[in-house]
Amino acid sequence: MADEDNFDTGDMFQDPEGFYEPEPEPTFAEHHMLSGQTVRVRLVGSHPLYGNLLWNAGRTSSHYLEEHADRLVKGKDVLEIGAAAGVPSIVSAILGARTAVMTDYPDVDLVENMRHNAGLSAALVGRDSALHVDGYKWGASVAPLLAYLPEAARSQGFDLLIMADVVYSHREHPNLIQTMRAALKRSPEAVALVIFTPYQPWLLPKTEKFFPLAEESGFHVTKIFEKVMDDVLFENDPGDERLRRTVFGYEIRWTEEELK
């Protein structure tokens, strides 16, 4: 009778070489600031939460922040949600934000990649600015994010929320509003910057429902620009090409009633 304790299975439970497709290697992308500085970021090789792309809205948000740095960024406390590679957060820190908190869904690969990108740009960030990275699920408590602020500011909230290409997730609109209400400082100057491209143009009416929902929730919505890019991000996608090349920008602030 064979000794079962010493039974040799050989390689029968080993997957043959080449059985699984290799994971795509991470790639790198560069964002060129208007100042001439270059922000280099690593993109996740392949990820269902789109951490493998540098989106037009992220680039456009970063340029808008640079153009309006004195009003929106310098000396301010900034929170980015849905950051992916995190270019707007990094640019905010470079531009002199007092605090910049870069967040995305609390997935290990996404958060680790954001930390990597924050490290890549550390030399560009001045000593008076602090850049932090954390995982955050929209609609969840913002207390862990407020903890990154200087102690005196934690009860007040963030001066600026950056929300680039997040409103495409229609079922998440209530959670995004909840995060805005909990995180944005109750101040006339505090603003949420919402920038997006309708990569699926036929869904634009659903995407735009975010804005009346924001108005019903105590915010005033102002459209600030509509910029047509030179190229589409996804060449073979269906739908109106001009819309797929267009970046829409909005500033959202508290209504006077909410500030009373």
From TrEMBL:
Q: Which GO terms describe its biological process?
A: methylation
Can you name the source organism? Answer: Aspergillus aculeatus (strain ATCC 16872 / CBS 172.66 / WB 5094)
Protein name, please? Answer: Protein N-terminal and lysine N-methyltransferase EFM7
**What high-level taxonomic lineage is stated for the organism?**
Eukaryota, Fungi, Dikarya, Ascomycota, Pezizomycotina
Q: Tell whether Transcription is among the UniProt keywords.
A: no
Similarity section: Belongs to the class I-like SAM-binding methyltransferase superfamily. EFM7 family.
> Please, which domain of life does this record's source organism belong to?
Eukaryota
Reported function: S-adenosyl-L-methionine-dependent protein methyltransferase that trimethylates the N-terminal glycine 'Gly-2' of elongation factor 1-alpha, before also catalyzing the mono- and dimethylation of 'Lys-3'.
Q: Which PROSITE patterns has this protein been placed in?
A: SAM_MT_NNT1
Citing just one GO molecular function, the answer is: protein-lysine N-methyltransferase activity
